[in-house]
# Entry
Amino acid sequence: MVKHLRTRSDFEKCLRAGNNGDLIAIFNGFHLRSVYQPIFRRDNSILGFEALVRVQDEQGNNLCPAELFRYLLPTDEAFSDQISVDKLARVIHLRNFARHAGQHWIFLNMLPSSAVASIEKFSSQQLMVERLAELSIPRAHVVLEVVEHLHDDSKRLSFATHQSVKNGFKIAIDDYGVDGSQEERVRQMNPSIMKIDRSLLRSYIEGDQDPIHRAIALAKQVNAQVLVEGVEDKQEYDAMLALEIDYFQGFYLGMPKSINEYFPANTVGVSCPSSA
# Structure
């Protein structure tokens, strides 16, 4: 059993070609593959894709990513594996994405238990910067997603995110609006994008409109663009279009799937459902 992935050679040994042409990874019994969910501008064009990992065990059983990437302390027995799987996921996400990147952005999730360290290393590590250049993915097209309410060390998190922006990356606050989200942390982080959690969308649809209006106002105050997550039907999409929201994401607009399925041969691009 591999204890921890450290070198480029360690990572390369875990990579395999998948049946659909995508790159997959195998590590300590985990089988990882990439799927991508599109993020749309108001004009229905694609801004970019959120990269998501799908994981199976050796028997082919699907594992819940939320459980696999749950908050762990460094002293936890599973912590080392979790960090390696998290890094491997980003490796295959970037390589699979590179073939179709063009002008699109890629949104990468950062593991809550090590987000500060991951952001610091990812944004400043020369090897990663060189690798992005090799893949022809501009740093300005890489968005690092952070769940701000899962971090107690606000000052260190703020420093890490500011350093990332200084190094050419973008920062998105993920799941804003769930329990624990705080305006002060958002102001400290000064993100490029604020992702509004689906719970605020549902509250708006059900008649409680103040929370999403406050979130949008906060985003404007820190000069962040607004992305609403979890749009699942036309009613929700139309309601969000009526607000000052820049970007849209959800099952109604595009399901998570292989990047190749969004860019089949001889297809120019992707658009929102025609009924939207």
In short: The mean pLDDT is 86. The two ends are 49 Å apart (CA to CA). The chain is about 35% helix and 20% strand. The first strand starts at residue 15 and ends at 17.
